[in-house]
Design a protein that fits this description.
Layout: E1 2-11, H1 12-30, H2 33-40, H3 45-63, E2 76-80, E3 86-90, H4 93-97, E4 103-109, E5 113-121
Antiparallel strand pairs: 1-5, 2-3, 4-5
This protein binds coenzyme A.
């Protein structure tokens, strides 16, 4: 059964402007090494970084108030399987509270925007 749903849309240019302004400090605060390596290996890294940021926002909408305590940006890591399908890997206290296999993520990019959708299934 579906327990939560979250969606987020983000302008890629906004992400680029922030990252260009605040540099590696912001990059490393928001994204794990794995996420950065994945995005930097792509033609337009900002598009993929923006998608991951949107995924983290969509995640927080899907779980809403169902969590105790807080979680950081890097506790919610986006990973792609061998087919390219995205999902989450959780770290820190949140990893003890929920099972990443109960979370489903879909991402899409256009030239200007990214969208992320998260579904949380019962059983977390
Ligand atoms: C997966 C696919 C549909 C992506 O569509 P697209 O219009 O090119 O790109 P979008 O911007 O909408 O989506 C890109 C995102 O799709 C996701 N994605 C990639 N492969 C995926 C897969 N196998 N399953 C689910 N999602 C996938 C990724 O999250 C990717 O973003 P990321 O690299 O930042 O993580 C496309 O690459 C494709 O068709 N791949 C081949 C799969 C296939 O066999 N298709 C034929 C079946 S009809």
């Amino acid at each position: 059964m579906v327990k939560g749903i979250g969606v987020d849309i983000l302008e890629i240019g906004r992400m680029k402007r922030s990252l260009d302004r605040f540099g590696d400090r912001m990059l490393n605060r928001l994204f794990t090494d794995h996420e950065i390596t994945y995005c930097k290996g792509k033609y337009d890294s900002y598009q993929h970084l923006a998608a991951r940021f949107a995924a983290k926002e969509a995640f927080s909408k899907a779980v809403a108030t169902g969590l105790r305590g807080t979680f950081g940006w890097k506790d919610i890591e986006v990973v792609n399987d061998s087919l390219g399908r995205p999902g989450f890997r959780l770290h820190g206290p949140i990893a003890e509270q929920m099972n990443a296999s109960s979370l489903f993520l879909s991402l899409s990019h256009s030239e200007s925007h990214v969208v992320a959708m998260v579904i949380l299934e019962e059983g977390t």
